[in-house]
Amino acid sequence: MEKKTLMVIGATGTIGSATCKALSALYDEATMVIKAGVRNPEAATALAELPGIELVKAEMGDPGLAASLVGIDCLFIVSPGVADRAPLVLKTMKSASTAGVKHVMVVSVLNAGTDSIFGRQFKFVEDGIKLLAFDWTILRLPLFMENYWAFKVRQAKASNGYREIWRKLIHFCV
């Protein structure tokens, strides 16, 4: 059986790093080449310590990204938590198509296509992946409570009186 090469781009985030950790535990270097696409390889020390993980400098939306994707059989794209995530993911998918990637998996949300900020953004991503020249998989993940509560905590005014309540609430939700 031919050894496959998989790359996770967006590998330093919560989903990307958990994916790399799981892949590292499931596959050895004789079975699969696993690459972690990160903006700054020097800062990705936790990923560098995982057995069988090769760090690759790769930034979503970068015009030179296609060169980093040559030879990749499967690309797992973890959408970044930025306002312009949809165009960045689409540029990344186009780079994958240019590089000859055979299969692209992209993280989406359950409410893709609805009239909400995430729904509109991820409908754009899902529509885009279907138009490109590779096999594709869309992983629709639920909205995460820590994202909601993190926003609320950032909006809260800091005070000693409520600090313990917030800490317990966040711990309960995570």
TrEMBL record:
List the InterPro entries hit by this protein, alphabetically.
Answer: NAD(P)-bd_dom, NAD(P)-bd_dom_sf, NmrA-like_oxidored
State if Isomerase is listed as a keyword: no
Protein name per Swiss-Prot or TrEMBL: NAD(P)-binding domain-containing protein
Provide the species name.
Rhodosorus marinus
Q: Does the keyword NADP apply?
A: yes
Q: Name one Pfam family in it.
A: NAD_binding_10
| Superkingdom of the source species | Eukaryota
Keywords in alphabetical order = NADP
Domain NAD(P)-binding as annotated: residue spans: 10-147
